[in-house]
Amino acid sequence: MNDFSDLKIEWAGEILSTVGYGLQARAMLRPLIEGGASIKLIPAEEYTPEFRKLKDSFWLNQIEKSKSLPDYPVRVNFAIPPQFRPKLKGSNVGMMLWETTRYPLEWDPILMGMNHIIIPSDSVKDLYINNRLVRPGFPGPKFHIMRPTFVDPGEFGVPTVINEVDEPSVKFLFSSNWIPRKNHADLITAFAAAFCDVKDACLIIKCWPADDSVANKRNIESGIRHFTDRLRGLARPRIHLLTDFVTHEAMESLIRSCDVYVSASKAEGFDSASITAMAMKKLVIGIPFGIKRDYITNTTALPVDFSLEPVVDSAAPGYDAYQAWARPNMDDLIRKMRLAYNMVKNPTMPHSPVGGMTIGQLTTNARSKVINMFDSNIQATNVYNVLKKIQTDESELYKVLAASSSQAQAPSTNPKFKVVESVY
What we know:
This protein is of the alpha/beta class and 424 residues long. Helix content is 33%, strand content 17%.
C-alpha cells in the first residue's frame, strides 16, 4: 500500500451524496485516507435530499473523526464555485466539473480568489482560457491537472433482471436525472427512427426525479409520453422507464444487464455511467464533447457527430446563451444505434465503421482506456502528487512571507495572488 501519511489537507464539498460530486470525492479520497493521509472532511450538502445520502459507516466515521482534527493550511473546495466554502485564513483550492464551453461569468471573482485551481483534464483547459483565467503573466491562481476517478466495478457481476424485457432483446440503457441537458427528446426520437421495424430492441431509461415523490415520478412519465406521442408515422418505440432512486451498487447491476449504454446528453462534467459501462466492457454510444473527448473515441466506443449550439432552455441556474454545448447529429446517432445493434447480434463479425474490430475488441479497448485514466487506485498516486505539491508550495510560500514580514514593516507580496504557472 502507498504511504500518503505526509498529506494533511481539508476537503469541503459533497461527501455522502450518492451521485455527482459526492461519488467522485469518495473515489478520490478513499485511497488517500487508507494510505494514511489526514483529510479533514467538511461536508457541504445541506441541499442533498436525505434519500440521496449514503449510509456508509466508513464515511460517517470519517466525518465524525474530522470534527476533532486540527485545521490545516490548505482547503480543497470541490463543488460548483457558488458552493465553495473557502478558508478565511489559509490557502484555497478550487475544483469543479463543468459541462459547457464557458462557465458563468459571475464565477470569475470566486475563482480569482483561489490560490490554486485544479482542472479535471487537459482537454477542457479551453473552459478556463475562454473565461480568461489563464493569461500568461497575469496575477491569478496556479493551475494543476488532476483527473476525477471512479471505483472499478470489475468486468463481471450479477445483472439486474428486468421482468418486462423479453429475452433475447438487445437492451439499450440510459441513466440520468430529469433535466433538459440530458436530452431525452433526441434520444427517444433517434431510437424510434432506428428501430421502428425492429421487435427485439428496447430502450431502458433509468431516470430519477428531484425528490422521491409520486408527483415527480409521474411528471417524468408524462414527459416520456410526450416525446413518444409526437413521433407520428413511426411505430411506438419499446421503452421501459424506471423512476425509483436506487443505490450505486444497484445502478451498477442495472448497467450489467444492458448490451449498449447510449447517451445523447448535450454536455457532461464527467459521466460516470458511461465510464462504468466501459469498465464493464459494454458498448457505449456518446458525444465526444468536453471531458468525454478523453475516452469516447473511434477505438473505444461509437462516437456521435455533433455541432455546438447556444445554451437555452436549460431550466437550471448558471447556464446562459453565451455558453455552448453539443447537439447530436441525428442521422449519425441513428446510424450508431443501428451499428450497435448489429454488433451485439453479430459479436464475432468485424465491422468496418470501427476499423474492422469486433464488439469484443472495441469493448476491451474501452475497459483498458477508462481503467488507466480514471481508476481510483491507479490514479491515487497522481491525486496525492497534485495535492502534496500544493501543500508544499503553500508551506514554502508562507515561510518566505513570514521571513519577509520580520524584515519589513509592510510585506509587498500578497499570498493570495501569484503568477500563473501554465501546465499546458
